[in-house]
Amino acid sequence: MTGLEAPLALFLLVNLLAALIRAARGPTPADRMLAALLFGTTGVGVLLLMAHSREAVAMPLVDTALVLALLAAIAGVAFARRAWQAAGRDDDAA
User: Fold this and answer.
1) Mapping DSSP to helix (H, G, I), strand (E, B) and coil, where does residue 54 land?
2) How far is Cα 40 from Cα 67, in angstroms, rounded to an integer?
3) Contact call for residues 44 and 55 (beta carbons, < 8 A)
4) CA angle 51, 41, 70 (to 5 degrees)
5) Distance, CA of 38 to CA of 66 (rounded, Å)
6) pTM for this structure?
Protein backbone atom coordinates (compact mmCIF):
# COMPACT_ATOMS: atom_id res chain seq x y z
CA MET A 1 0.00 0.00 0.00
CA THR A 2 1.49 3.33 -1.06
CA GLY A 3 -0.98 5.68 0.62
CA LEU A 4 -2.12 6.96 -2.75
CA GLU A 5 -5.25 4.80 -2.76
CA ALA A 6 -7.33 7.05 -0.49
CA PRO A 7 -6.83 10.26 -2.52
CA LEU A 8 -7.51 8.40 -5.75
CA ALA A 9 -10.68 6.88 -4.33
CA LEU A 10 -11.80 10.32 -3.15
CA PHE A 11 -11.17 11.73 -6.64
CA LEU A 12 -13.24 8.93 -8.16
CA LEU A 13 -16.06 9.56 -5.69
CA VAL A 14 -16.08 13.25 -6.69
CA ASN A 15 -16.39 12.08 -10.30
CA LEU A 16 -19.37 9.96 -9.24
CA LEU A 17 -21.00 13.04 -7.75
CA ALA A 18 -20.50 14.89 -11.02
CA ALA A 19 -22.02 11.95 -12.90
CA LEU A 20 -25.02 11.96 -10.56
CA ILE A 21 -25.63 15.62 -11.32
CA ARG A 22 -25.25 14.94 -15.04
CA ALA A 23 -27.67 12.03 -14.87
CA ALA A 24 -30.27 14.20 -13.15
CA ARG A 25 -29.90 17.01 -15.70
CA GLY A 26 -29.28 14.89 -18.79
CA PRO A 27 -31.47 16.15 -21.60
CA THR A 28 -31.58 12.80 -23.41
CA PRO A 29 -31.80 9.19 -22.29
CA ALA A 30 -28.41 8.58 -23.91
CA ASP A 31 -26.80 11.14 -21.58
CA ARG A 32 -28.36 9.39 -18.62
CA MET A 33 -27.16 6.01 -19.84
CA LEU A 34 -23.61 7.29 -20.24
CA ALA A 35 -23.74 8.56 -16.67
CA ALA A 36 -24.93 5.14 -15.52
CA LEU A 37 -22.02 3.51 -17.34
CA LEU A 38 -19.71 5.98 -15.64
CA PHE A 39 -21.17 4.85 -12.30
CA GLY A 40 -20.26 1.28 -13.20
CA THR A 41 -16.69 1.92 -14.28
CA THR A 42 -15.95 4.35 -11.47
CA GLY A 43 -17.48 2.02 -8.92
CA VAL A 44 -15.25 -0.77 -10.18
CA GLY A 45 -12.25 1.52 -9.82
CA VAL A 46 -13.13 2.46 -6.26
CA LEU A 47 -13.72 -1.16 -5.27
CA LEU A 48 -10.41 -2.26 -6.78
CA LEU A 49 -8.58 0.55 -4.98
CA MET A 50 -10.16 -0.55 -1.73
CA ALA A 51 -9.20 -4.17 -2.45
CA HIS A 52 -5.62 -3.12 -3.13
CA SER A 53 -5.37 -1.15 0.09
CA ARG A 54 -6.82 -4.00 2.18
CA GLU A 55 -4.94 -7.01 0.92
CA ALA A 56 -6.22 -9.40 3.59
CA VAL A 57 -9.91 -9.08 2.61
CA ALA A 58 -9.48 -8.29 -1.07
CA MET A 59 -11.37 -11.18 -2.69
CA PRO A 60 -14.96 -10.12 -1.81
CA LEU A 61 -14.24 -6.60 -3.08
CA VAL A 62 -12.75 -7.91 -6.32
CA ASP A 63 -15.74 -10.21 -6.81
CA THR A 64 -18.11 -7.31 -6.23
CA ALA A 65 -16.16 -5.19 -8.72
CA LEU A 66 -16.45 -7.93 -11.34
CA VAL A 67 -20.21 -8.22 -10.81
CA LEU A 68 -20.59 -4.43 -11.07
CA ALA A 69 -18.60 -4.38 -14.31
CA LEU A 70 -20.76 -7.15 -15.73
CA LEU A 71 -23.99 -5.36 -14.76
CA ALA A 72 -22.77 -2.11 -16.32
CA ALA A 73 -21.94 -3.90 -19.57
CA ILE A 74 -25.33 -5.63 -19.67
CA ALA A 75 -27.11 -2.32 -19.00
CA GLY A 76 -25.23 -0.66 -21.86
CA VAL A 77 -26.11 -3.46 -24.27
CA ALA A 78 -29.77 -3.43 -23.19
CA PHE A 79 -29.98 0.32 -23.70
CA ALA A 80 -28.35 0.11 -27.14
CA ARG A 81 -30.68 -2.68 -28.19
CA ARG A 82 -33.74 -0.75 -27.03
CA ALA A 83 -32.56 2.43 -28.77
CA TRP A 84 -31.86 0.47 -31.97
CA GLN A 85 -35.36 -1.05 -31.94
CA ALA A 86 -36.95 2.35 -31.30
CA ALA A 87 -35.02 3.85 -34.20
CA GLY A 88 -36.23 1.02 -36.45
CA ARG A 89 -39.85 1.70 -35.50
CA ASP A 90 -39.40 5.42 -36.21
CA ASP A 91 -38.02 4.64 -39.67
CA ASP A 92 -41.01 2.39 -40.45
CA ALA A 93 -43.50 5.10 -39.41
CA ALA A 94 -41.90 7.75 -41.64
Assistant:
1) coil
2) 10
3) no
4) 85
5) 15
6) 0.76
